[in-house]
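Troubleshooting: if your tokenizer reports a length mismatch, compare your output against this known-good record of 75 residues.
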Amino acid sequence: MQKLSDVQINSSVIVEKLLFSGSLRERMLALGFTKGAVINVIRKGPKNNLTVYKIRGTKIALRKEESSLILVNAI
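Known-good structure output:
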């Protein structure tokens, strides 16, 4: 498993585990970051702090701190 923040652009991965707790975990689950969900890495933002991901047909930007708490496997 690797962190979502370490995945290269134009790659696809599958969510394996969330390391969040509390309300932030609930927010991520509501956005579709559930076990088995497919994530496509679209592009990195300025200074590599933000990354745009496509999950379940929706584009979502996450900070590096948030994406490093999502563990994924390559497809």
